[in-house]
Amino acid sequence: MYPLPVQEHRHNSREAFLVSNEAHTTEEAQASLDEFGYFTVEGAVDASLLKKLRREIDSGTRACLQMQLDRGLGQREGTTELPNGGDGALGGAAHHIVSAGGSFLELLEENPLFDIVASHLGGTPFILNSFGAVTNTNTNNMYEHGKTIHRDSRRFFADFHEQCWLMVMVDDFTIDNGATWFLPSSHKMANTPTAERFYSEGKQITGKAGTIVAFDGRLWHAAGKNITDSPRRCLTVSFTLPFLKPQLDYIRCFGIEAVEAMSENLKQLLGYYSRVPSNYDEFYRPASERFYRSSQG
């Protein structure tokens, strides 16, 4: 059976902080990330941008689903929903939706919670590792993997902050529409917690649209079950140090000319200053023209 909902997560001084975008400090955020594995900030994205994000998530998700179907991945309908997830349908997942540009690049230009990301990754330059969207619905083909108890870092390093993730609530997150479950402090656990422990000690992270949750990539989590008739959209954005390979080559995806016309902020995030040269001409360059700059660590 799918676990029954617990009471809405109420933050207090001994749990991950819930603060407004104007009120948070980097120090308290890092303290929360260190102890609990996550930190929540309300009002981090304004209503006008949220409206654009919803529209472009919907269109991007339809496009991704069609690409999946064209390649024999997943099904449009008729799948059987598994109570605790599985490796089935991909419906609802829009991987690397940032490649559509638009409001997704606009969000990155606003540097949302980037002070927290930089702190968690060691205060050095960082790059985008992935940027996707997940729409949680009550239909059978909802992205099954999201409902499994999982962590986003593939390997466990006890003393290395490999990834910092931002979960952007594009719609309100409620108990009924499948708010994400977190197991506080589980970023310190090397092995998967049992379902009994996860759902008895875990918290469903609820919040208003525009809330962003920064979390450690080692934190064990799972999507909740949406029992409403409305979609619950979110963006999942991860960052790493530049020497770690991103999930998509964003420079080749956008094209070098397009990236070179972007802001310095986007160039950094997309990995323009941490490229790998492919020949001697690209390797032997003055410091200011090198593919992998010394500032990238």
Q: Would you kindly provide a written description of the structure presented here, covering whatever features stand out?
A:
This protein has 297 residues and is α+β, with helices and mostly antiparallel strands. The chain has a 7-stranded mixed β-sheet with strand order 1-2-8-5-10-4-3. The chain has a 3-stranded antiparallel β-sheet with strand order 7-6-9, covered by helices on one side. It has helices at residues 26-36, 47-70, 102-109, 114-120, 195-201, 250-254, 256-260, 264-270, 280-283; strands spanning 18-20, 38-42, 93-94, 127-136, 164-169, 181-182, 203-204, 212-216, 221-222, 232-240. It has a domain at 18-123 and 132-160 and 181-209 and 224-239. Strand 1 (18-20), helix 1 and strand 2 (38-42) form a beta-alpha-beta unit. The protein has 9 helices and 10 strands. Helix 1 crosses helix 4 and helix 2 packs across helix 3 (102-109). It is globular, with a radius of gyration of 19 Å. The relative contact order is 0.18.
Write the layout of secondary structure elements.
Layout: E1 18-20, H1 26-36, E2 38-42, H2 47-70, E3 93-94, H3 102-109, H4 114-120, E4 127-136, E5 164-169, E6 181-182, H5 195-201, E7 203-204, E8 212-216, E9 221-222, E10 232-240, H6 250-254, H7 256-260, H8 264-270, H9 280-283
Parallel strand pairs: 1-2
Antiparallel strand pairs: 2-8, 3-4, 4-10, 5-8, 5-10, 6-7, 6-9
Helix pairs in contact: 1-4, 2-3
